[in-house]
Structures are given as structure tokens and as C-alpha cells.
Design goal:
Tachylectin-2, Chain A; about 350 residues; globular; 8-stranded mixed beta sheet; mainly beta; 5-stranded antiparallel beta sheet; single chain
């Protein structure tokens, strides 16, 4: 076949090692952008804000545990009022985005049976000094009760609190929680414990920390827990390359075909509280099979970069509703927001 004559532009477009390198780098950046996992923020964020008239939630409403019951998303959120006490409030959403019900009073408090100053925590990283904070909500398989774990502020340490409530009570908005039990040791700081929603090898499973390794406790019963031993909060980079400091688990794990989907919070290279994701082996969740190569959510929007404690995104709850992955997170320790992704798309990128 007769070849055509080269045009002047073709003659000039010779591929040199330098131009090839630039082309390769541009291609890599493009492919990395396509592989990047990023949750999409709800356009009407924040979905829950403090109410100035309510003394118990006039400063902060954030960090909600979440669960789907009767086709609704039920949110148990942390609220801080003008007495610097952290309590648990309740709201719900039919579609997972817009709040259509919100209780006027707190649904769960940690009673101080002593002089109020004797109950004051000595080492809280937050701005409140009393109460309970950062609830995680789990229903194990199809049991007729729901468990809540949370950080309890006590004079000697940050301890893990546990309570439960019947499913039917939540649906009726009858807040008959069991008596709060402190299940971590009295003189050791602990945070971010989450309960798995399924038994593994016939045992209940509680994740107590993720750094330097995933640490689990296997139990015959949750209701009969006395104390669970743990060496407390350990901050390290753990299994996350992009993290300056790996802090702890976020929402309770979600069972998927690719493993247990676990969100976690960590400080990124800039030192900002960010949210990452990983997939744990189903039968042995101490094995981390996949980790997001970058945060799936970082402080970016104004409501995430300004507030009571700026530059923080922090999740305690995530659910699947209508094939959508909904991640609820506190923004700047001030308001509650939601970010989302199609579950299949999220998992595909996480495992690629």
C-alpha cells in the first residue's frame, strides 16, 4: 500500500523520552482520578442542626449512629447543650436524607448519681465534660433488640458504655433503654468500640481498636459482659498509608459480598480528621483485604471547615437503603451531614 506523505505537524510530533514520560504521568493521573473513591455530599447538608431554644442541644448536634428499621433510617445523635453535657437525641428519615421526625427531649442520658463536679471527666478531647457521646447502633442478625455502644465520660477515664432497647420500642418511640453498663476497665481510656451485626463462629464480636492491628473480642453473650480488657487508645498509622494517625472505627461494619465494609477515622497528611474505608475478611475480620488509597471524605465544605471544632468529618453510622450506601457524619463537631454512593460502585473502586 502506498504510504501518504507526512504532514508538517506529524513530522514535528516525534515521541521523545521526555514527552513519553509526561504522557505517561498524565495517563496515570487520569486513571487514578477514575479509581478514586469519593462519597458524594448531600446537596442540602447539614441535615441536622442545633436548636438554640433547646438547652440540651443548643450547641452541637452531630455524630449519629444509624439503623434501618421498618424502611426508615433511625438516627441516634450526640447533642451538647449549654450545661456542657453530652446526651443522645433521636431523629428519623423516610428517604435517608431529609429529617421528618425529631424528638424534643433527649432519649438517653448518663445519670450522675454523685456531686456534679465529681462526675466531671478529666481528659475529654471534646468540649463537653459530662455524659455520653458518639453512639454506634447495631442489631445483631434478627434479634428483637438493638445495642448502643458509646463513650462515657467518667472522672477516671473515657469508658465504653453499653445499653440496649427493643426494636418495637424504637418503632413506638418508647425510650425504655436498659440500664447503662460500663464494659471497659475503669482507669483506661477507650473509644470507638463497635458491635458486628452478625455472629462469627457462633460468637458475638466487638471491635475494640484498629491500630496497630484490628483487635476483636468474641463473646457468648453481650448482655452478660462484665469488663472487656483492652490496653486503650493507641494512635498509629496501622494499615493505612495515607494516614498521619489512625484513630478508630467509625460505623459498625456492614456485611457485603466482598467482606465487612468498615469505615474508620484518621488524620490525613495535613492533620485533618478524615474518613477512610476498608474491607475485612468475612470469617476472620482481623484480616484487612482492601483499604482506600485516600480518604473517602475529607473536610472541604464550609460546614466542615468552620464550626465548634473546625476541619473534622467523623462518622458513627452507615446504612444501605435502596442500593445506596448512606454515611452519616458529624461536621466540625457542630452539625450532622450525610454522604452517599451506590454500593456496587463504591465496592468496585475499593477493590480495584
Amino acid at each position: 500500500m502506498r504510504r501518504g506523505k507526512k504532514t508538517s505537524n506529524e513530522s514535528k510530533a516525534k515521541l521523545t523520552p521526555e514527552s513519553y514520560q509526561k504522557y505517561f504521568e498524565a495517563f496515570e493521573l487520569e486513571m487514578e482520578a477514575e479509581r478514586k473513591i469519593e462519597l458524594k455530599r448531600f446537596a442540602a447538608n447539614p441535615i441536622l442542626k442545633p436548636i438554640p431554644e433547646n438547652y440540651w442541644e443548643c450547641f452541637e448536634t452531630f455524630n449519629a449512629g444509624a439503623i434501618v428499621l421498618d424502611k426508615k433510617v433511625h438516627l441516634f445523635y450526640r447533642a451538647v447543650g449549654n450545661d456542657w453535657t453530652s446526651r443522645i437525641g433521636y431523629a428519623s428519615s423516610k428517604d435517608g436524607f431529609l429529617i421528618d421526625c425529631r424528638e424534643k427531649r433527649p432519649v438517653l442520658e448518663y445519670p450522675c448519681e454523685e456531686n456534679i463536679e465529681e462526675c466531671k471527666v478529666k481528659s475529654s478531647p471534646g468540649l463537653n465534660f459530662y455524659g455520653i457521646e458518639d453512639p454506634r447502633v447495631t442489631r445483631v442478625e434478627n434479634e428483637e433488640k438493638v445495642y448502643l455502644t458509646f463513650t462515657t465520660l467518667t472522672p477516671t477515664a473515657l469508658r465504653i458504655g453499653l445499653t440496649s432497647i427493643p426494636v418495637k420500642s424504637i418503632l413506638k418511640k418508647s425510650w425504655d433503654f436498659s440500664k447503662i453498663k460500663l464494659i471497659s476497665l475503669p482507669n483506661v481510656n477507650n473509644k470507638n468500640w463497635v458491635i458486628f451485626p452478625e455472629k462469627i463462629n457462633g460468637k458475638y464480636v466487638i471491635l475494640t481498636k484498629i491500630s496497630p492491628i484490628i483487635t476483636l473480642k468474641y463473646l457468648d453473650s453481650i448482655d452478660k459482659i462484665e469488663y472487656i480488657e483492652s490496653d486503650g487508645i493507641v494512635n498509629g498509622t496501622g494499615f493505612v498509608d495515607w494516614s498521619k494517625r489512625l484513630k478508630g472505627a467509625g460505623a459498625p461494619p456492614i456485611k457485603t459480598e466482598d467482606g465487612w465494609l468498615l469505615f474508620f477515622h484518621a488524620l490525613n497528611k495535613k492533620g485533618l480528621y478524615s474518613i477512610g474505608a476498608c474491607l475485612l475478611e468475612c470469617k476472620d475480620p482481623t484480616i484487612v483485604n482492601y483499604v482506600s488509597k485516600a480518604p473517602v471524605l475529607e473536610p472541604k465544605e464550609k460546614y466542615e471547615t468552620s464550626g465548634i471544632k473546625p476541619n473534622i468529618v467523623y462518622s458513627c453510622g452507615a446504612v444501605i437503603k435502596n442500593d445506596l450506601l448512606l454515611v452519616y457524619y458529624g461536621a466540625s463537631d457542630t452539625t450532622l451531614c450525610v454522604a452517599y454512593s451506590y454500593l456496587d460502585e463504591f465496592l468496585s473502586k475499593l477493590t480495584s
